[in-house]
Design goal:
By secondary structure, the chain is mainly α. It has a single domain (about 10-140), classed as Ferritin. It is about 80% helix and about 0% strand. The chain has helices at about 10-35, 40-70, 85-115, 115-140.
Length: about 140
């Protein structure tokens, strides 16, 4: 008998969706950090870079969990959106975080329903960080 939880292919697919999103936003946010100029850019670019790095760590953690669960992590990000102005970038980012929050709540519910408390706990932590990122980006838009 395996010590690993026996999770559904549906949950594995959801984890891969999460990986693809995390790869995408980490690239999007890093390019925003690189492209932002002027006083507004200087005021926020370091925060965006920090968030980009956190998002890449999320991708890594989710991929490690998926491999442990017998899945294969995707290497393909979802569509990468950057934007041209600070306002446009923050609107994009709020939307990206909204999507992540929605998906991660579904992953938590699915993992709990399948008895995979470790994945659920991991996504509770990631969800808290995504909500913090959402708050940062909505505050920057205000």
């Amino acid at each position: 008998m395996s010590a690993r939880p026996n999770i559904s292919n549906e949950l594995k697919d959801m984890l891969n969706d999460a990986i693809a999103r995390e790869l995408s936003v980490s690239i999007s946010y890093m390019w925003q950090h690189v492209l932002l100029t002027g006083l507004q850019g200087l005021a926020v670019k370091d925060e965006i870079k920090k968030i980009s790095i956190v998002e890449m760590k999320h991708a890594e953690a989710i991929a490690e969990r998926l491999v442990y669960l017998g899945g294969k992590p995707t290497t393909k990000p979802t569509e990468i959106k950057v934007g041209e102005t600070l306002t446009e970038m923050m609107r994009i980012n709020v939307g990206l975080e909204d999507g992540a929050i929605e998906l991660y709540r579904k992953i938590i519910a699915k993992a709990e329903a399948e008895g995979d408390t470790v994945t659920a706990d991991m996504f509770h932590q990631i969800l808290a960080e995504e909500e913090d990122h959402h708050n940062t980006f909505t505050s920057l838009l205000a």
